[in-house]
């Protein structure tokens, strides 16, 4: 039986638990022809627990020519266009932007 992405109860539960635990979340290969609404559905699950203004990021072509990045909110991420070359990051409650970078402080000074 082929999985239908987030239609799989186990994957939905994992996203919900990660949000409840305030973990930083990474979604690899977040869209394909068979899963064009994967990110929108993931955001719907996360928005049950997380605020709309939670910081998120999209990086396209990581480590390749033409790498690009964008910082946005969880509400904006829900409507963002992503493809299989993107990695999506959903920050935890401590995530912030520093010099245009999305970071999660880990107790270091001055961050």
Describe this structure in words.
The chain is 24% helix and 24% strand. It has 111 residues and is α+β, with helices and mostly antiparallel strands. The strands form two sheets. A four-stranded antiparallel β-sheet has the order 1-4-2-3. The chain starts with 8 loop residues before the first helix and ends in an 8-residue tail after the last strand.
Which strand order does the major sheet show? 1-4-2-3
Largest sheet: 4 strands, antiparallel
Strand content: 15-25%
Estimated radius of gyration: 14 Å
* Total count of strands: 6
What structural category arises from helix and sheet content?
A: alpha+beta
Unreliable spans are none
Task: Give the mean pLDDT.
Answer: 90
Order of SSEs: HEHEEHEEE
Termini separation (Å)?
A: 47 Å
Classify the oligomer. Answer: single chain
* Helical residues, percent: 10-25%
Total DSSP helices? 3
The gross shape turns out to be: globular
What's the structural blueprint in terms of helices and strands?
Layout lengths: L8 H12 L4 E4 L9 H9 L8 E6 L7 E6 H6 L6 E5 L5 E3 L2 E3 L8
Antiparallel strand pairs: 1-4, 2-3, 2-4, 5-6
Can you describe this structure in just a few lines?
Helix content is 24%, strand content 24%.
Keywords:
111 residues, 24% strand, globular, alpha+beta, single chain
